[in-house]
Amino acid sequence: MVEMIKSRVDTFVVFPKLGSVFEVLQSGGGPLCGQLIDLSHDLARGLTFLHNNNIAHLDINPSNLGFTDNHCLQIFDFDISVQVNGEDEQIDDYLGTEGWMAPEIGTRDGPRQLYSPIRADKYSCGRVFKVFANTDGGVDEDLGQFADKLMHLNPSKWPLLLEWCRPNNSATLTQTNSAEMMDKTMVAEDEAMVTEEAKVAEGAMVAEEAVVAEDEQKMTAPKKPRVGYGGEGFHQVPM
What we know:
Layout: E1 3-6, E2 11-14, E3 19-20, H1 21-26, H2 36-52, E4 55-56, E5 65-67, E6 73-75, E7 82-83, H3 117-133, H4 141-150, H5 162-165, H6 170-220, E8 226-230, E9 233-237
Helix pairs in contact: 2-3, 3-4
C-alpha cells in the first residue's frame, strides 16, 4: 500500500503499480525470464503465511498474481477467500477458476463435494509452479517435480509449501552452516570459560578449607609444656 485517501464519499487505497504475471506468461515470459523461480519462492511464502493464519485464497492462478518493479510477487483478489480452522476443515462450495482448481472441488454442474480449501490452494499453487517451470527459459526440473507432488492425488505425497520457501542454494547453505559453526564455537568457548572459572573457584575453596582445617587443628592440638629455668635448675612452667 502506498497511501490511503479518505473522503466524504469513501476511502481509497492506493497500491503500487504491479505487472501482471498472466500477461507476461502469455507473451512467453518476457521480463520475468530468469525470475520465475524467485517468484515461486515468493508464492510459497505468501501462501504459507495465509495458511498459517487459517486463510485459504481459493483462486490462485496467474491472473491473480502480480509483481513489483523489483520482481517481488504479490497475491491479490481475495473476493472468494475463506477463513478456516485448519487444513482439515472442509467446505462444499464450488469456488475458483476452472483449469486451476483442485479436482476434489468437482464440477460446476455436478454434485457438491467436500474438500479442504487449504489443500485446494496447494493444488492450484502446483498448477502455477508447473507453468513457471516450463516457461523460465526452459524446464526447471526441481520446480516441476515439486509441482507434481503438490498435485498428487495421494495426500501422503504432498510436500509442505514451506519446503519450497527455502531454496536449496549452496551459498545459502554455506552461510547457514558457517553461522551454525560460529554459534557452536562461541558456545564451546563460553562453556570452556565457565569450566575454567569453576575450576579456579573450586581450587580457591579447597585452599581456604585447608587453611581453616589447619587453624582448627592448631586450636585443638594438646599443648606441650614449656620448660623454664629457675634458680634451682630447669623446671616445667605452667601454661
